[in-house]
Structures are given as C-alpha cells and as structure tokens.
Amino acid sequence: MGKTIRNSRTRTVNFITYALVIIAYIILQSMVSSGNIKSVLKGMLVPICAYIVMAVSLNLTVGVLGELSLGHAGFMSVGAFTGVTAAMAMFYGIPGVAPWLRLLVGMVTGAVFAAVAGLLIGIPVLRLRGDYLAIVTLAFGEIIKSLINNLYVGFDSKGFHLSMLEDKTNLLEGGKLIIGGPMGIGGIKKISNLTAGFILVMITLIVVFHIMNSRSGRAIMAIRDNRIAAESVGINVTKYKLTVFTISAALAGAAGALFAMNYSTIVANKFDFNTSILVLVFVVLGGLSNMLGSVIAAAALTILPEALRQFSEYRMLVYAIVLILVMLATNNPALRALIDKLKPGRKNEEKEG
Amino acid sequence: MKKVFAIILAAAMVFALGASAFADGAFKIGGTGPLTGGAAIYGNAAANGAAIAVEEINALGGIQFELKYEDDTHDAEKAINAYNTLKDWGMQISLGSVTSTPCVATASETYDDRIFAITPSASAVAVTEDKDNMFQMCFADPNQGSASAQYIMDKGLASKVAVIWKNDDVYSKGIYETFKAKAAELGLELVSDTTFADGNDTDFSVQVADAQANGAELIFLPMYYTPASLILAQADKIGYTPKFFGVDGMDGILTLEGFDTALAEGVMLLTPFNADATDEKTVSFVTKYQEKYGEIPNQFAADGYDCVYAYCQALTNAGCTPDMSAEEICDAMIEQFTTMTFNGITGDNMTWGTDGAVTKGPKGMVISNGAYVGMD
Fold it and tell me: What letter does residue A61 receive in the DSSP assignment?
C-alpha cells in the first residue's frame, strides 16, 4: 500500500513540474509573439532553458546517483563546439537548409559527442568514489577547455580539416575556419529559440522522470543509498553508473549546443570551473534529486543577477546574501513542516500511518 | 469667444512647448564593460572617460547626452544581458563593449538592431568584421602587433626578442601572430616563444628563464597587465633585466593594487594616448580625471572620452536630433564616420574605413618614476 502512495506522490510532483514548465512556456511565448516583453528577459529565455537542462541533468548524477561531478560544464562545452560546428558546416555545405533542422542536427550532434565523452571519461573515472571522482571530473572540465583552446577546425569542399596548436588547416578557396583556437567560434547564426529550449527541457524532464520511476532508477538509488547492499542483491553497479553518467552528459551536450547557438560567438573559457559550480549551485539550492527545485533554482538564479542590476557594484554581494537566505529558509524546521503539510498526498500517508 | 480662443491658444502653446522640450532631449548613449571582476580597470576607465566627455559637452548647452554604462564582467553572456538592459532603457547610440569577447557578442546585436556603435577599446578584428555599423576607436589587434615590431626595429631597441603570450586569449593571440610575422619580415630574431593560459597564469619562472637562457634583450608582452606584473616580478627575482615592451593591455599596470611600481620602471608600451602630453585638450582631460577619480587616466579612459566627442562631432555634422530613431541615427552615423576626420586626445586626424577600423599614429611610452612618459 505504501508503495502506491509513494508512486502517486511522485506522479503528482512530476505532473506539477511538467505543468509549470508548459504554463511558463505558453505565457512567455505569447509575450514574445505579441512583442510585449522586455529585451533583457527575452534575451535570457534560451540561456534559462539551457541552464535548466544543465541543472536537471546534473541532478541526475549528483542527486539520484549520488556522485559529485564538478565537470558538467565540460560536457556542455563538448556539445556546444561540436553542435555549432555541425550546424555551421551544414549551413555552408548544404545551402538552403531550414534553421530548425540545423538547430536539431546541432543539438543531436552535441548530445552524441558529449555522450561519447561521458562514456569515455566514465569508464576509468567511475571506479573512483567521492572526493576522487569530484577531483577527476574537475580535471576533465579543465582538459576540455585546454583542448578546445588549441583546436582548429575548418570546413571546405573536401570536408573537415583538424589541427592542434596552430592553424594548419590549409583550407581551400571558399573554405571556412569554424573553431579558431582561443578565438572559439565566431559568426554563429543565432538560430536557438524559446520553443527549441522548451522542447529540450520537456525531453530532459521526461527522460529523467522515466529513469527515476523505473526499475533502473530504483537500482540507481539503491546504489546511492548503500552500494554494498545493492551489489549484494546482484545490481551491476558499473553498468548503472555508466548509464547515468552518459545520459547526463548527453543532455548537457544538447544544452550546450542550444546555448551556443543563441550567441554570435562562443569561447572555450566560458565553460570553465565557475560554470560547473554555478550549475551545482542550482542543483544544491533546488534540492538533491528534486527536479522541480532544479528547474526553479536554475531559472531564478539566472534572472536574479539581472534583476539586481540597480544595485550596480553591490549586485554580487546581494546575490550571495540571497543565496544564504534561501539556504537558511529551506532548512528551517518550522518552514519545512509547513511545506510538508502543503505537499500533495501528505494527508493520505498520515491516515495510513 | 475671445476667451475660448485664448484658452485654445494657450493650450496649443503648452503643447508646443511640451513637444519642443521633447525634441530638446538628450541622446541616449549606452555601453557595456567590466565594471567589476578581473578586467574592471578597463571598464571603469572607459566609463569614467566617457562620463567626463558627456559632462563637458552637456555644459556647453548644445547637443545633450545621457550616458549609461552597464556591467558585463568581461563575459559574452552577461554582455548580452547588459546590452538588452540598455535597449530597454531606450539606447539610441552605443559605445559597444570595452573588451573584445563581449564586444563580438554585442556587436552582432547592434548590427541586427541597427544601432550604431563605436567601441573605445575592443580591438579584435572579429568585432567589426562584416558589420557596417560597428567602429573602433582603438587599433585593431593585427595593427598593434605589426606596429610594435616596426617600432622596436625602427628605434633599434633590440635584435634578439622573446615573446610570452596567452594562448587561450583572442587579444593576445591576435597581436602575437602579426608581431611574429612582422618580426620575421623585418629580420628581428625571435629567440624565445613561450605561452601561458587561464589557470596557469600565476607562475612565470619557466617562461622568463627560457627568455634569459636564449639571451633575449627584449621581452614582448602582448597581454593584460595582471600577468605582465607577475612576469616583471619574476624577472626581477632572478636578476634578469631585459627591456620590456607591451601593448595597450599593459596600460593600467601602475594603478594595479598591491603592485610595486618600481618593477615597471623602464617598461615600454605602445599606446595611442600619452597622459603627459602638453596640448591643451589632454591637460584639461587629465586634470579633470584626476580631480574626479584620483588617478592618472590610462588609454581606455582617453578612448572612452574620444568616442563621445566623435559622436558629438558626427551628430552635429549630420544634424541629428534626439527624437530620431536609433535606425535613422545609425544611417547618418555610418555616413559621417566613414567620411569625417576627427581630432581627439588619442590621435590627430583620425579617419575610419568602411571596415570600421581607425587610422591613427601610435605613440611609444615608457614608464619612468611611476608615470607614463612619451618616448618621442
């Protein structure tokens, strides 16, 4: 009996998350199409979607699997650079392709490459636990940054040309240098839009919720709660860890491609340690394995620094104070009891008890 | 009947007055720059310089400006947010962004929105590339590199040269590449070529030792002042005293907090602005800047100042009024900037090409007794 109640409760929370995202999308989209929206908010819509996907996918690793990853921006970077490269090559290689198709190809390419990176890094790394895993993922993020800073990719009629350290691509006439080392990618066609962001957020939520509420999800959470016990009942720890890590990386890669195609230029230094920590802050503030929390935290904390512009130099100070206050408030026992009371399904459980 | 007529007349006059007050309003001029964070010296200097120019021009009573600077923390994403904030405020003409990477991002927005922009100091080529309404007040990176090599050669400063550059930075790499090409062309011998990147920019013992071991007489430092200050300290520590030559990023090193200015003694840099110049315009600007902000203005402040004056001249010539839309002003400005000649404190007889790049002569400076002094 207890299990069905738990199920119905998670279902309600999932439903609220979907509903919230859909309602937000409908309101914002109608504001955008009627032109009744401030430029500053309009400019932040796509980044917010990308950050939501980043937060939810990292929450899958940190909250559900229970492994601390400090290199999530590295996967975002892989997705951004491969995705934009694919979209740009398509633009120059096959004239007349619809922007949405280029965006789709870019995001899928980003997701695939990031997934491969996640798998490759996951095989050696997931043997490590706790602090060690955190340190190695941190290093991974830095390695990706250095690699891309020294990578030159060009595209001409003969296909792709790659070189490291120096621009030795020797492009043919009419060729185009896409990734220019520290210059990153310039001249990106800005094809990301809110609808694409919304679809990616929905896909991410569906994927993550389905994993959490499946047999695999229960196995993953069992690994998090007690690895030895999980192993003793025959759960293949490595397989599940690797699966989660790869899915999380793929989603981050798609988010990276979406994010990059919202700007005319993107440099590898954007996806540094600070970005990884920023996403981790979204996750921690929203609550571990609480996806609704991640969505709200990512959106709120992206808007907050802009909303605080009136404080000019004191902006980041106020931002930090707000973070501390939110942490204190959400950990306040009285407030928690109040929230618990309001939570759906709570009454039923009490009756059961 | 007379009464009614009088009332209507009065109402019409009030209305006309209101309308003319609107027309007499100010041009809304906006810019983004790093007002906080690691590159804050540049952003604040440019913003302060522009503010002084606006104050002076407004005091004359002719064209009126309203200036607003928003913080972009030297980040492209934040720069777009800052730019959009300015757009919501009603910006008509833009000062772009102060640093290169954010400016590449905002330039694409100003291009799409048809808002004219001139950046005080974003020197990357990508800033103005393929954009008809984006101009630069500073030299573009390639010019800085080749001009530096030319200057070193012409003045006979050294024959064996070392370069330390930042290989994950648009600005540094842009200058390095043209410097290297020009040096090879002129016959300057490049004996040591070492790099650093974000995250390993605190220890320069390897790079400096390499330059010393190869007998470099001069080290070229195409970078911002923070790593440059550490290189100077490192060379001092091992008792190595080559000549140091920097570019506009070196400007600001004397105001860096906690930096021993004695280390920068004798450092040369190529910059278009000389705070020690004795012409009337520069003296008045430097005095005002010192009164208001308590420090000697660097090149970024001068660039910001010149940008506003260039706007003043172009708007006057074109006969623009503040009630014109950003797009109308944009067309007029493109025409003005590609045809006019401007005399500012960062150079005389400046002209702009249709690619947005400026033509003006660089000035060699040397740091002496804790101040920038002209070399010529």
Answer: I
Residue A266 DSSP class: B
C-alpha closest to that of A188 among A277, A267, A271: A267
- In terms of C-beta distances under 8 Å and separation of at least 24 residues, what long-range contacts does B151-155 make, across chains too? B151/B270, B151/B362, B151/B364, B152/B188, B152/B218, B152/B220, B152/B245, B153/B186, B153/B187, B153/B188, B155/B364, B155/B375
B173 and chain A: CB distance < 8 Å anywhere?
yes
Rounded Cα gap, residues A180 and B141, in angstroms: 16
Q: Report strand pairing: B93-97 vs B65-71.
A: unpaired
Task: Decide if A43 touches B, using CB distance below 8 A.
Answer: yes
CA–CA distance, A59 with B107 (Å, rounded to integer): 36
Considering CB atoms only, which of A181, A264, A309 is closest to B85?
A309
Q: Considering only alpha carbons, which residue of chain A is nearest residue B81?
A: A40
Q: What is the DSSP string of B192-251?
A: EEEEE-TTS-S--HHHHHHHHHTT-SEEEE-S-HHHHHHHHHHHHHTT---EEEE-GGGT
Helix (H) / strand (E) element for A178: namely strand A176-180
Number of H helices, E strands in chain A: 14, 3
Residue contact B167–A316, C-beta within 8 A:
no
Q: Which residue of A has its CA nearest to B131?
A: A187
Flag if B81 and A306 touch (Cβ within 8 Å).
yes
- Across chain B, the runs of DSSP E, i.e. the strands, are 27-33, 65-71, 93-97, 116-119, 134-136, 160-166, 189-196, 218-221, 243-246, 268-271, 342-344, 347-352, 358-359, 363-368, 371-374
Give the integer Cα–Cα distance in Å for A25 and A225.
Answer: 36
Instruction: Quote the percentage of chain B above a pLDDT of 90.
Output: 1
The model's pTM is: 0.80
Distance, in Å, from the CA atom of A48 to the CA atom of A40, rounded to the nearest integer, reads: 12
Do B169 and A182 lie within an 8 Å CB cutoff? yes
pLDDT tens track for A151-197: 888 887 777 777 777 767 677 666 778 887 777 887 788 888 889 99
- The predicted-structure confidence for B198-236, as pLDDT tens digits, reads as follows 777 888 888 888 888 888 888 998 888 888 888 888 888
Helix then strand count (H, E) for chain B reads 12, 15
Q: What residues contact B328, with CB distance under 8 A and at least 6 apart?
A: B320
Q: Which helix (H) or strand (E) holds A163?
A: strand A159-164
Tokens of A337: 């009891």
Domains of chain B: residue spans and CATH: 22-139+278-360 (3.40.50.2300), 142-271 (3.40.50.2300)
**A309/B36 touch (CB, cutoff 8 Å), yes or no:** no
- Closest residue by Cα to residue A24 from A10, A41, A12: A41
For residue A44, the chain B residue with the least C-alpha distance is B81
How open is the CA angle A219-A224-A225, to the nearest 5 degrees? 95
Confidence (pLDDT) at B3? 56
The token duo for A301 is 């904390």
Residues, chain A: 353
